[in-house]
Amino acid sequence: MKQKKNWLTGDGKCSSSTMGGLKSPDVEIHVMGSAMEVVLVTGLDCQFMFTEIIRMFREEGAEVVNASFSIQDNTVFHTLHSKLGETSAPEDEAARISEKLKKFVYSSVS
Q1: Which residues, 6 or more positions from 73, have their beta carbon under 8 angstroms from its beta carbon?
Q2: What is the pLDDT of residue 34?
Q3: What local confidence, expressed as pLDDT, does residue 19 receive?
Q4: What is residue 85's predicted lDDT score, i.e. its pLDDT?
Q5: Cα(16)–Cα(31) distance, integer angstroms
Q6: Which GO terms describe its molecular function (predicted)?
Q7: What are the mean pLDDT values of the chain's consecutive 10-residue runs (110 residues total)?
Q8: I want to staple 13 with a disulfide (CB 3.0 to 4.6 A). Which of 31, 66, 75, 110 is the partner?
Q9: What is the CA radius of gyration of the chain?
Q10: CA of residue 51 relative to chain centroid, distance
Q11: Which residues make Cβ contacts (< 8 Å) with residue 20, sequence separation at least 6?
């Protein structure tokens, strides 16, 4: 009940336990020129991360062109495709966004 309450209130934390259907989040980031793909794998208790990552992209000026998720057993697979802003150095922008995303995902584990 406490985990459900935390998830519903969006306290920003996910369980690090793999017992009881809970899974620590993991993120993979792929950059191809001005395109960025993020694959986020979470447990059922971390679904708030999906919308938070979309918000981060928008804050950084990147356009989310496609976002989807699928659930298999107790694991949620989120995929986001984005187009980076029209900057002269997309590599720097990609590195900054990647670092911010990783920091958010891995600091969200309680």
Answers
A1: 21
A2: 87
A3: 41
A4: 77
A5: 28
A6: DNA binding
A7: 54 53 80 92 85 90 92 93 79 89 83
A8: 110
A9: 14
A10: 8
A11: none
Residue type at position 21: G
Here the contacts of 81-90 (C-beta below 8 Å, separation 24 or greater) are 81/35, 81/36, 81/37, 82/35, 82/36, 82/37, 82/38, 82/57, 83/34, 83/35, 83/36, 84/34, 84/35, 84/36, 85/60, 85/61, 90/31, 90/33, 90/34
Q: Provide the residue type at 76 as one letter.
A: V
Length, in residues, of the chain: 110
Residue with tokens 């584990």: 109
What is the topology classification, in CATH, of domain 2-107? Alpha-Beta Plaits (3.30.70)
Say how far apart CA 97 and CA 1 lie, in whole Å. Answer: 34
Distance CA 97, CA 49 (A): 15
- CA-to-CA dists, residue 31 to 22, 24, 44, 93, angstroms: 29, 23, 27, 10
CB 25 within 8 A of CB 14: yes
